[in-house]
Amino acid sequence: MKIGDIPDDGTMATVLNQLFHTYKGTVSLIGDAPTSFDVMSEELDDPEASFAKKGKYVLKFSLFVKDNETKLIFLGGQIVNGWWEAPNTAPIIEKSVQLITQSNYIIQMPRVSFVAVESDEFKEDGVGLIEVTGTILPPAGAGVKSRRSRQYQNPTVSAGNAQNITVANAALAGTATAFVGTIVSQQWSCISKPVAAADPTIATPAALNTNVTGLVNGVYRFQLAAKDENDFESKATVMVTVALP
User: Cα separation of 84 and 12, whole Å?
Assistant: First the structure.
């Protein structure tokens, strides 16, 4: 689970942070059944018209109470000289929320209104929790939906086109794009080389574009691995064939 500040244009937050771990077995996203009512007349047995109103969706979870920052986000208040001080009135807390389930399903909710209470059990097996209830509200941004979901996808990675060269060095050019968020790391490596050849030197393995030196006659395979901010990874390879004169 990640949360972020709602942008001024009322869309889904693009900067999201994982600030906490949820307590096992407490996370749920449940929608109320739609309600309907009929417009009846004295003259007819059947309704003149029927109207429906969709039910609200509620996100619930509990957090380990570990630091003042987490309390500040969900309970409001202030931090003074290292002390968290509870607010005198219930704060209005609205955030964007993103969930990625264990089955790699991503759910985005641009605007969620939170209320929370602190619950502490002072016993041997007691746990300090912040119990949070979030109501999903219509986003302020034009055309923005209150919820959207789909199967998560790994980053899209390319290691470039195969190369046939007649020199002892090559230029590697890769690309990496995250499904959501950003790419946080990329790494080149040599995964195969000619028999008895020394390892080639990759100038900047953590850059998308880099040079390789120390090549000899034969076929090399270089791999680019990229990981996104949600720890999903993809890999791609490129073949470099060297024929020195």
Answer: 29
Report pTM: 0.81
Which residues of the chain form beta strands (DSSP E)?
2-4, 28-31, 35-39, 49-53, 57-64, 78-80, 83-85, 93-100, 105-119, 129-136, 148-151, 156-158, 163-165, 170-173, 175-177, 183-192, 201-202, 209-213, 218-228, 233-242
Q: How far is CA 18 from CA 26, 129, 141, in A?
A: 17, 17, 24
Q: Which two tokens stand for residue 17?
A: 């942070």
Cα separation, 88 vs 102, in Å, equals: 38
The pLDDT tens digits of the residues spanning 173-219 come to 999 999 999 999 999 999 999 999 999 999 999 999 999 999 999 99
SS3 for 75? helix
Whether 130 contacts 74, CB under 8 Å: yes
The residue type at 38? D
Largest Cα separation within the chain, whole Å, is 99
